[in-house]
Amino acid sequence: MKAFYFITLFCLVLILAASEACGRKDSVTPGNEDGPPEPYNLELPPGIPAPAYDFSKNPLTKQGIALGRHLFYDPKLSRDSSISCGFCHQQFAAFGHYDHALAHGIEGRIGIRTVPTLFNLIWQKEFMWDGGVNNLEIQPLTPITDANEMGEDLVRLIQRLQGDAKYRKMFKAAFGSEEVTSQRLFRALTQFMAIMVSFQSKYDSVMRKAPGVAFTAEEQAGYTIFQQKCAACHKEPFFTDFTYRNNGLPYLPALNDVGRMKITNSTGDYLKFKVPSLRNVLKSSPYMHDGRYFDIYQVFALYDHGIAQSGTLDPLVKNGIRLPEQEQRALYMFLNTLTDPGFINNQSLSEILIE
Amino acid sequence: MTLRNFLLYFPVSFLCLLLLTGETACTKSTAPPPNTASLQLSFSNLVNGQPMVLRTTNYVNAAGETFNITLFKYYVSNFSLTTTSGQEVVLTPEYFLVNEESDSTKVITLQKLPSGTYRSITFLLGVDSARNNSGAQTGALDPVNGMFWTWNSGYVMAKLEGTSPLSTMPANLIEFHIGGFKGANNALRMVQLSFPSPVALGQNGHAAFKISADAYTWFDQPNRISFQQLASCTSPGAQAAAIADNYKSMFTIKAD
């Protein structure tokens, strides 16, 4: 009787092993070009709200991100092969642009706005300084086709990528076939932008009560001042409340940028621009939508005594924001804690050489 | 098994079997008929009743101004049919971009339609609001078709370009890119066309209709457009909405 049970058990084990092996034959070995793309798990920091971007139709995969990164750093996406996304969006400046007030593109053309920083994009619902773009996927369409930036025609770009054997291979690895479509192009770029997450600054460590990390006395003083005088618009944890406001920045006739009014056709939005995130702020000068301030102290000066009155001026800055010298210094020290060195130096986001 | 047990278990098993197969007096045993009817719509574009010919033919608008057309495209989407008893049958949303330059885009076949007798067809002239927010899309909605604004996300519902000596734009260009899906100046328009006579579509049934789109209506009424005053409209707003109010009556239908 016992022998009977043993034989049955042994046969069952054999059958189980055989079916397991059969299952495994179809599974992917890492790095297999012909297999489906491998999922990528984006670790989100604790206590942060869920992203606004819907990943269900564009889940993160290693191959999707790799393709997106390749596209991001490839100047061949521009009309004369001179400007890539990474040319303007520089990692060491938190993917903003160092030392140029206004974005400049092909043939030395210049736009009227500064390069915005790129991080934590999956939490944003609207993009650009005036919020004109409503989905992260189609954000790249604007700089790629803008005459003053990359100046390329989308049809021509798709054809160029389709004709490139290396891209065909990467599209196949990421999306299952060699067909290059604008949707795949944008989704790959979106995947790369999605992993630009910045929530590991000293400020974050202090907030999470990481052992051995604490604000210095001056940083703490700066944080208190920040909460009293800046946080209403530059709200934690994103350091922006994603609204559009007129912060008293004087209008420049030469640029004639009316801000959000161009998008909404509402005079109530005249001279209103998106509140930018202050994360990595000391790494990403110049400041304001037109990059007119190279030094953060010029920003303090604007709020302290430089507010330009206008009909749409935000009530919060109506009387300016007094910032005595010592407070400015403390505030500077606090803003320094918003720098995320892990993000700035993250090798997975760095520029790759495109042959 | 004892007789008592058998008398207990047999009806229980029989009931379970009934439930499993759904065969009771209350349930129907026939599945609903599959949707197999189809409808073909052939679009042709006109200007004031005459066939539209791009570039080489001149036309005159309601304000008496000469013009020609170099480009004419519009989205039709979100079709539904209304039965003779007034019931609206909403079809699976589909999106088509009719392009005067491309004959293959002018024949639309709506498939997998439910059987019924229909008195009218309704569709959206443009792309619905949800799709304007849905990121990168394919097919007729692919931005490669040149019908999607980059700087202010949203579809151009209908586009007409050409020239007119009365236009003060460079090279006498006239350009009307009509879009906007939000608020008071929403340029989306529903179009309802009554079939010449009720259409009975049975299983595998098929019917065909010709739909004409007359570009003359764009500049006619209720908002008369003069190219001398307005030769370019390329962003959402009151002007775009006014032209949409004009062109919503550009379609007529007849049997094919």
**DSSP summary: helix tally of chain A:** 13
Radius of gyration of chain B, in angstroms, nearest whole number: 26 Å
Write down the overall geometry of chain A.
globular
The CATH topology of the largest domain in chain A comes to Cytochrome Bc1 Complex, Chain D, domain 2
Number of strand elements of chain B:
15
The total count of strands of chain A amounts to 2
How many domains of chain B, as an integer?
Answer: 1
One letter per element, helices H and strands E, the order of chain A comes to HHHHHHHHHEHEHHH
Structural class of chain B: mainly beta
- CATH structural class of the largest domain in chain A: Mainly Alpha
User: Helicity range of the residues of chain B?
Assistant: 10-25%
Separate helix tally of chain B: 2
Short account of what is shown:
The complex is a heterodimer of chains A (355) and B (256). In chain A, 35% of the residues lie in helices and 1% in strands.
Identify the notable features of this structure and list them briefly.
heterodimer; A: 355 residues; mainly alpha; Cytochrome Bc1 Complex, Chain D, domain 2; 2 domains; B: 256 residues; mainly beta; 10-stranded mixed sheet; 15 strands
Polypeptide structure, described:
The complex is a heterodimer of chains A (355) and B (256). With 355 residues, chain A is mainly α. Chain A folds into two domains: 55-198 and 345-349, Cytochrome Bc1 Complex, Chain D, domain 2; 202-339, Cytochrome Bc1 Complex, Chain D, domain 2, CATH 1.10.760.10. Chain A is built from 13 helices and two strands. Chain A has a two-stranded antiparallel ribbon. In chain A, α2 (62-72) packs antiparallel against α6 and α9 crosses α12 (325-336). Chain B is mostly beta strands and 256 residues long. Chain B starts with a helix and ends with a strand. The A-B interface holds A 128, 132-138, 141-142, 145-146, 154-155, 158, 181-183, 185-187, 190, 262-263, 265 and B 132-138, 142-144, 148, 150-154, 185, 236-237.
